[in-house]
UniProtKB/TrEMBL annotation:
The lineage of its organism: Bacteria, Bacillati, Actinomycetota, Actinomycetes, Pseudonocardiales. PROSITE patterns: MFS (PS50850), SUGAR_TRANSPORT_1 (PS00216). The chain crosses the membrane at residues 39-58, 64-84, 96-117, 129-151, 172-190, 196-215, 246-268, 288-308, 320-338, 344-363, 384-405, 411-432. This is MFS transporter. PANTHER family: SHIKIMATE TRANSPORTER. Residues 1-20 are annotated as: Disordered. GO terms for molecular function: transmembrane transporter activity. SUPFAM superfamilies: MFS general substrate transporter (SSF103473). Its main location: membrane. Keywords: Cell membrane, Membrane, Transmembrane, Transmembrane helix, Transport.
Amino acid sequence: MSNPAQDEHTPGRTAPPSSDRRRVAFATVVGTTVEWYDFFVYASAAGLVFGKLFFSGLGANSTLVSFATVGVSFLFRPLGAFLAGHFGDKYGRRVVLVLTLILMGAATTLIGVLPTFGQIGVLAPVLLILLRVLQGVSAGGEWGGAVLMAVEHAPSKRRGLFGASPQIGVPLGLLLASGVLALTSLLVPGQAFLDWGWRIPFLLSVVLILVGHYVRRRVEESPVFREIAERREQTRTPIVQLFRKHAVLVLVAALVFAGNNAVGYMTTGGYIQNYATNPKGPIGLDRGPVLWAVTASAATWLISTWAAGVVSDRIGRRRTYVLGWIAQLAGVAVLFPLVDTGNIVLLALGLIILSVGLGFTYGQQAAFYAELFPASIRFSGVSISYAIGAILGGAFAPTIATALVDATGTSVSVAVYLAGMTVIGLIATLLLRDRSGIPLGPDHEAEQAVSPLRFSK
């Protein structure tokens, strides 16, 4: 008679109880929410205030350079991914998650107390960029550990659902960041917001980091890594092995995420916030209503992200992605025509429509990535693919969008750029086989090592 608690990944081992799985899911949601709250508060502030406060010496180019600092952090995500992948595959997922959370929170809090350009001159933007670099290193290491903790604890038929837990933390982080900024803007309006009110969301990170640290310290290590450690089968050079055997797979997986990330950073990167509120731009809406519209879109993104994880358990990761790319393309097509009306309700509608496609090209990503790579190098594989995809996709999407509008005088050019990135994501998805339900434990390393690329033998 079979044991219902038997782990389907690794014969002979006992699966974590459902209560432990729920605790892990909750911990990944809380921790990832805190991480991305920090990350998105910066991106939103870059579009709203940093150009005036830290880059005012650059005149007309201040906003463009402010957006570029959002992208600078992405250049350091691979460093975070390399470090986290190396230590995560050697020493475990949990320790990396705790360290990245502390690093992100410390950097965010310090931004909240930085003097501005008007107070200390050029040193202000230099320090701001250095702290943004630390945020990038942290974000590069965070995601891989969070998704593996969730997916490797999950039953094989519910990996999409459990893997959506850390994914939900991203729209939750945007929801929290936009909501806090909107509330702060309401309570501290006008010039006071520029003078000191913007600092409040950054300083709140201290409280959030304590909550996230407490929750994450209470979860058990991934059962897959525990077994690898017990067998003393940790790979000594996981990154070398990854690129020696799976370099093309890393690039294709990165392009899948790039297609989602470029479009997502229209809001998470602060571009729409700046585009819609710029008094010299074509719309000139008030800051508060735009932030509330972004908050509503983040709530939609959260729901669609969760739904994508559930759907992917039923119809497969690849089919869910294809549906998502089609929905995202439709969202890109209607976004700027609705935003350019200058009507806040239609702007919110455009963002909400876009968020449905964003969720359906994101919710299943954790399970999809985890099923692509062998157990011994999985942390390195998912982290580095994610970090490279972030550079190719969202790193400079707000900067590119700003430059396109400046060069062409129309938002149509931005829509064409986003549609192109969506098509790239679709093509990359079609190049990969669906491996939903493949065993994840070290007993099945040989099966996992078979390339999921459709053009490979």
